[in-house]
Amino acid sequence: MKKKIKIGKNVEIGALLEHVDDRVTLIAEQNADLNGKVDRIEKKLNVIAEDVEVIKMDIEFIKHC
Fold first, then answer.
1. Domain of 51?
2. Res 65: pLDDT
3. Are 5 and 23 in contact (CB under 8 A)?
4. Is residue 1 included in any domain, yes or no?
5. Count of domains observed in the chain
6. Residue 22: inside a domain, yes or no?
7. Would you say residue 43 lies in a domain?
8. CB of 19 within 8 A of CB of 30?
9. N or C: which terminus of the chain carries fewer CB neighbours within 10 A?
10. Eight-class DSSP state of 2
């Protein structure tokens, strides 16, 4: 629910508080979405790091053959 509030003397406190509440809710939802994306990126990076370690071990094995 997106409402445009014109700041002025005629703005009702209730409408202003509702607008602020809507904005805070939107920010909280966006934050949760970003946190989920960060978690997925961290998991992918962990998989990549594990793959790199396996490749390093393979290289060391090949060097000693």
1. 36-65
2. 84
3. no
4. no
5. 1
6. no
7. yes
8. no
9. C
10. -
* DSSP code per residue over 3-65: -----STT--HHHHHHHHHHHHHHHHHHHHHHHHHHHHHHHHHHHHHHHHHHHHHHHHHHHT-
- Tens-digit pLDDT profile for residues 5-49: 666 656 678 888 889 999 999 999 999 999 999 999 999 999 999
The encoded tokens of residue 59 equal 């290289």
For residue 56, what are its two tokens? 């390093």
Rounded Cα distance, 59 and 65, in Å: 10
For 1, the enclosing helix (H) or strand (E) is none
Q: Which residue reads 């202003």 in tokens?
A: 16
Sign of the torsion formed by the C-alpha atoms of 20, 25, 28 and 34? negative
Is residue 55 assigned to a domain? yes
pLDDT at 55 over 90: yes
